[in-house]
Amino acid sequence: MFSKITTESVAEVSYRRIRADIIFGRLAPAQKLKLDSLKEIYETSVSTLREILNRLSSEGLVVAEGQRGFEVAPTSESDLREIAALRLLLETHALEQSFAHGGVDWEARVVSAHYKLSRMEKIMATGDTSQAESWKRYDWEFHQALISGCGSKLLMDTHSGVFDKYLRYQMVALSYRGDIAAKEHQQLLDAALKRDEKTAKAILIEHIQGGVEHALMRNRLER
Q1: CB crowding 92-102: b at 16 or more within 10 Å, else e
Q2: Which CATH architecture has domain 2-72?
Q3: Identical fold, 2-72 and 77-217
Q4: What is the distance between the alpha carbons of residues 29 and 115, in angstroms, rounded to a whole number?
Q5: Rounded distance, CA 189 to CA 114, Å?
Q6: Predicted confidence band at 89 (pLDDT cuts at 50, 70, 90)?
Q7: Taking a C-beta distance cutoff of 8 angstroms, is the pair 120, 95 a contact?
């Protein structure tokens, strides 16, 4: 029993490490994933790596190439736009539910998450990109907090998976829009506390579409 639990734990840790390395760009788009090299880096067996990479393939983060092995999913303008559209669809619906049902605890989560994000945005605004991963983690936390009153774990989990793919594009392009994004986050916070659904949705549309166009202008994606 102990051996089984240990094996499962090691596999899960390796899965999370590889997934994070893909999302944060440490494993680059279209990079070949050679099992012999990966087993040394992630300290796990080739058979476990195959299971992990197949799992990531089902999530759309890895491409299985049959007998040729695996590679990190490539990036493209069309894929980014599709991911952004799906994120917007999920997030606006979840916002609507959160505004209708979220209570004081939900408000507290949103305020706390925004505080951490705004502090990191000030660091990024100085030109210091050494904490870019922390910036995006807090960005993720803020948007998850905004929808955390929706009452649906499935909706939140689905949104999280889509947001991770969107985040990968931002990390690949190192796309930070500075004061514009920070202002939109503040406006989303204000709209949430006022339960102003119409304003929040309008800001969210502008926020996501602006992020897409900024990432594309960085010219680091296959177009």
Answers
A1: bbbbeebbeeb
A2: Orthogonal Bundle (1.10)
A3: no
A4: 32
A5: 7
A6: very high
A7: no
Q: What is the pTM of this model?
A: 0.86
Q: Name the residue with higher pLDDT: 140 or 176.
A: 140
Q: Of the ranges 29-43, 70-84, 131-145, 168-182, which one carries the lowest mean pLDDT score? A: 168-182
pLDDT of residue 71: 96
- Classified as helix, coil or strand, 165 is helix
User: Where in the chain are the domains?
Assistant: 2-72, 77-217
* Nearest-angstrom CA–CA distance, 166 and 207: 13
Q: Give the fold, CATH level 3, of 77-217.
A: Four Helix Bundle (Hemerythrin (Met), subunit A) (1.20.120)
Enumerate long-range contacts of 44-53, CB under 8 Å, 24 or more apart: 44/10, 44/11, 44/14, 48/7, 48/10, 48/11, 48/14, 49/14, 51/11, 52/11, 52/14, 52/15, 52/18, 53/18
Please write the tens of the pLDDT for every residue from 161-183.
999 999 999 888 766 788 999 99
